[in-house]
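FAQ

Q: What does a record look like?
A: Structure on top, sequence underneath. For example:
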């Protein structure tokens, strides 16, 4: 099964509310993923200290060393995400050294655990082909649309070697094929 981006904004909202209803950390994981395009392996180990200074002020950029590529990535968190983070950190009473996505067992949530929560939410809402990469692909898909098809920037952000890889990854090729099949009616 190939996971897909979520192409429908109403479904994005439904999924967020469903996950947030399970626990706010799942809602924030979803919100964080679709607003940054980070891989789940780079998202889950984040700590409060990665986001805020010791004075409780947002850092200028979130800096992450990607596990897969070992490359450093700097991300300016948008206002939507900052608002969610502020509420979440206060509600959960997290301190500077705490993991944002804490596990009851200690440490941070595992990738498979998060996958199961996403799958549960997808099944409940009728969203097929969902997985942890759905978050990253959704960011790429909507960034592509909103940026007026700036595939080069998305390709660079994802560290892909070609635009065709990026287009396939974010599901644009399939969208274009679907459109072709809709247009041609002989």
């Amino acid at each position: 099964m190939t996971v897909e981006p979520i192409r429908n904004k109403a479904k994005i909202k439904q999924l967020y509310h469903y996950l947030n209803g399970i626990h706010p950390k799942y809602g924030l994981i979803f919100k964080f993923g679709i607003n940054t395009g980070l891989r789940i392996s780079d998202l889950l180990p984040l700590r409060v200290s990665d986001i805020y200074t010791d004075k409780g002020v947002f850092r200028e950029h979130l800096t992450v060393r990607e596990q897969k590529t070992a490359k450093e990535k700097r991300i300016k968190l948008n206002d939507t995400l900052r608002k969610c983070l502020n509420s979440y950190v206060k509600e959960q009473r997290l301190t500077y050294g705490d993991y944002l996505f804490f596990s009851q067992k200690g440490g941070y949530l595992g990738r498979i655990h998060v996958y199961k929560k996403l799958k549960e939410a997808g099944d409940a809402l009728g969203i097929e082909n969902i997985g942890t990469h759905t978050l990253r692909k959704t960011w790429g898909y909507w960034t592509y649309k909103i940026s007026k098809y700036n595939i080069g920037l998305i390709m660079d952000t994802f560290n892909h070697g070609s635009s065709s890889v990026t287009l396939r990854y974010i599901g644009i090729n399939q969208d274009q094929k679907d459109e072709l099949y809709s247009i041609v009616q002989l």
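Q: Is there anything notable about this one?
A: The chain has one domain: 9-183.
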